[in-house]
Specification:
Strand order of the largest sheet: 2-7-6-4-3
Strand content: 5-15%
Order of helices and strands: HHEEHHEHEEEEHHHEEEH
Oligomer: single chain
Helix content: 25-40%
CATH superfamily: Type I PLP-dependent aspartate aminotransferase-like (Major domain)
Number of domains: 1
Distance between the termini: 21 Å
CATH architecture: 3-Layer(aba) Sandwich
Number of helices: 9
């Protein structure tokens, strides 16, 4: 149990370390913005372990410097007049935003929500109730999809009138935070910091060159394809529940990280 902790460590196995070493030891081509977006969109859609629908309802695609960049840009666009649910990403409380419970959402104020939710590693348990409340109160929804990177068995349709944008990054669950990059999908073109970075190509070409390299080396479902049996075995051995996130186990009330253990397994 010593390596099973309440901190959710990413997987950093020998192969991922070798990929990082290769990146820093060689020169690599730099794709154009359009080339990177096409490659990344194809990569995110290539998951065979999740059923994600409604992509075509979001015609505007932008490069992001990880999902925190997406959250910050969205919050600033609305001058921080946003709301979030309890037990969300700690960033919101650090910035002074208190959570709003389901059933008490405020009219006309955008909602930022994580999907999958990290505590359950699944779609929010009150998702249909949340959608109905947002419909009734004219609440725009923006989805932080960082956890889709480490997910399996998620069946979700983005094409709902109240969902205005969603984003995914490459890093969650894997030790790839040394290069933070992803994509934002939007229904309408809006003017914010991400739009400006993309229009001026000032997001930093190194992150797209590295992101392109990583996608060429790491398949979308890499961790689940490699460690599914070990995930299930560890859950049984330690009387915990498997989850839909490769680096996380849980009991009824607590999540536990197994990223360190998986990283040490030789295959």
């Amino acid at each position: 149990m010593s390596d099973i902790t309440k901190k959710l460590h990413p997987i950093n196995d020998a192969y991922l370390k070798s990929v990082k070493q290769e990146w820093f030891s060689k020169q690599h081509p730099n794709p154009s913005r359009e080339e990177f977006i096409e490659q990344a969109t194809t990569w995110f859609k290539s998951t065979k372990l999740n059923q994600l629908h409604g992509w075509n309802a979001f015609p505007y695609h932008d490069i992001i410097i990880g999902c925190t960049n997406y959250i910050e840009s969205t919050c600033l666009r609305y001058s921080w007049k946003i709301q979030h649910l309890p037990n969300e990403y700690a960033y919101y409380s650090v910035m002074g935003k208190q959570p709003t419970p389901v059933g008490e959402l405020k009219e006309n104020i955008p909602l930022i929500i994580s999907l999958p939710v990290w505590q359950h590693c699944d779609i929010h348990e009150n998702w249909e109730e949340i959608l109905k409340e947002c419909e009734q109160k004219n609440i725009d929804i923006h989805i932080d999809g960082a956890w889709f990177q480490s997910a399996r068995d998620i069946n979700f349709n983005f094409d709902h009138p109240n969902i205005k944008s969603f984003a995914m990054s490459m890093t969650k669950g894997l030790e790839l935070n040394w290069n933070r990059v992803g994509i934002r999908w939007s229904k309408q073109r809006t003017m914010d910091s991400i739009t400006l970075l993309n229009n001026k190509n000032t997001y930093g070409e190194n992150i797209t060159a590295c992101g392109s390299f990583l996608m060429s080396k790491i398949e979308k479902d890499y961790a689940w394809n490699k460690y599914k049996k070990e995930h299930i075995r560890l859950a049984k051995e330690h009387n915990l529940l498997p989850t839909n996130s490769i680096h996380v186990l849980r009991d009824n009330n607590t999540v536990y990280g197994i990223g360190k253990i998986l990283s040490k397994i030789k295959q």
